[in-house]
Amino acid sequence: MTTWFRTYYEDEDLWLYFEADDEGWATRHVEVRGTDARPVTAASLEEVLHLRDHADPPAMDRYERQYGVLADAPLDGWQTQPQAAEISAEEFEQLWADARRILGGPS
Q1: What pTM was computed for the model?
Q2: How far apart are CA 28 and CA 36, in angstroms?
């Protein structure tokens, strides 16, 4: 079952939003700076896997510069992180669309 949630990383003043699959791995990941609410990450597992399988390393580098790096570990224990909360799919979709628009890519 897909879940959507957010946590807050105080050291970096970042809100982290995740769409996670039923095994707890991130399928999409958005990070938003707290100071100015600007997205800094909007990465997708589907896109990363496509690049890994069909592109060269410079293409992956360009993707990571534009969209950031996807979380690469299971998201176990997110419920105990600061300000953790489940969010709706609709809220995540809006954040995703806004982040991709601002970072310059398709939603």
Answers
A1: 0.91
A2: 22
